[in-house]
Design brief:
There is one protein chain. The chain has helices spanning 243-246, 258-261; strands at residues 22-24, 30-31, 38-42, 50-52, 68-71, 78-86, 90-99, 113-121, 129-140, 146-152, 162-163, 168-169, 174-181, 186-191, 205-207, 218-223, 232-240, 270-271, 275-277, 282-289, 294-300, 305-307, 314-322, 325-333. By secondary structure, the protein is mainly β. It is globular. The relative contact order is 0.22. Keywords: Signal. It comes from Chryseobacterium formosus. This is T9SS type A sorting domain-containing protein.
């Protein structure tokens, strides 16, 4: 019996990107700064944070699209992406990360170094990105070739991050979700939590040791290359005001609402005639294996096809841009 697979279930669960403050799948290559709202705020050599082909995936999380970025303790550039300022309640961010090795990573007995965080842009006579909140830290684990992740709420005093109780092997994708609470000036870290609408009842680590007052607003997401962060691959960055927005199941929130646009993107999700047929003009078509390997590229017109005769039988993810919005569907090649 034929089985039809799509990232959204196509009709019933298609969702709009507007639900989130940020969704960043890195749908480009080269220097991240200067693309899709990213800017450099620190470091002597801009352009060191780059996007390259390859994805990280996590079971149950929306399918990855685009590419990914890598950071290194050998580099100095720090970058940021702005979003609508949040000043009350809670704000979340999430990312897929994978430590590539432990070269340059702080020892297990040390405090560690941070590589992802929120930021606030000051408005004085010399405006600058400042007040870094909800910082994710990394350090070596107890075992060889392992790392551990921690969280710090804010700066000030003798602030020390709180680390999760579990170490993770290098080259293993880890799903990190961070929650910052304005009212309590507290940051919580959820490591490898289940995607979905319900926030876990217990966080992997909670921290409120930083004594600096909670900011009046948070309006930036930042990627930092610290001197001891090591080498880390990062993918699928999300920022939102609910857990569900940063831990969506089934498909990326950047996927186009196909009902609303009256288009089908990929018309034949069960590919039996060696060609994928498209129901819209699609730029930058990419076909990935479920492990993130790019195996085919192209651009197509509405009603035209992309020949995939050379691909082996199995499931693939097809991504592209329709009307300036990212679209993604899963196909089965027979």
């Amino acid at each position: 019996m034929k089985k039809i697979f799509t990232v959204l279930g196509i009709v019933a669960v298609a969702v709009s990107v507007n639900a989130q403050l940020v969704y960043e799948p890195f749908n480009y290559t080269g220097s991240v700064s200067g693309q899709n709202g990213w800017a450099t705020h620190s470091g002597a050599t801009p352009g060191q944070v780059t996007a390259a082909t390859g994805n990280l995936t996590y079971t149950g999380l929306a399918s990855s699209t685009g590419n990914s970025i890598s950071i290194s303790s050998a580099n100095t550039e720090d970058i940021n992406k702005s979003f609508t300022a949040q000043s009350t309640g809670v704000v979340y961010y999430s990312a897929l990360v994978s430590a590539q090795n432990t070269t340059g990573t702080t020892a297990n007995t040390a405090t560690g170094d941070y590589f992802l965080h929120f930021g606030t842009y000051s408005t004085g006579t010399t405006p600058a990105l400042s007040l870094f909140q909800a910082r994710i830290y990394v350090k070596k684990g107890v075992g060889t070739d392992t790392v551990n992740y921690g969280i710090l709420n804010n700066s000030g005093g003798t602030a020390a991050p709180t680390f999760a109780s579990t170490d993770f092997p290098i080259n293993q994708t880890v799903f990190l979700v961070v929650k910052y609470d304005f009212a309590t000036n507290t940051a919580s870290l959820f490591v490898n939590a289940a995607p979905g609408s319900t926030e876990p009842t217990t966080a992997s680590a909670v921290n409120n040791t930083g004594t600096t007052a909670a900011p009046t607003a948070i309006d930036y997401f930042c990627v930092r290359q610290g001197s001891s962060t090591g080498n880390i691959q990062i993918d699928e960055v999300r920022v939102g005001t609910t857990y569900a927005q940063v831990a969506p199941t089934g498909a990326s929130l950047a996927v186009l609402d196909l009902n609303k646009t009256k288009s089908n993107f990929v018309r034949n999700t069960f590919v039996k005639n060696e060609e994928i047929t498209f129901g819209a003009d699609v730029k930058d078509v990419k076909v990935y294996t479920l492990t993130g390997q790019l195996v085919k590229t192209g651009s197509v017109k509405e009603g035209s096809s992309l020949n995939v005769a050379e691909l082996q039988k199995g499931n693939y993810i097809v991504t592209g841009t329709v009307n300036n919005q990212a679209v993604s569907q899963k196909i089965l090649k027979d």
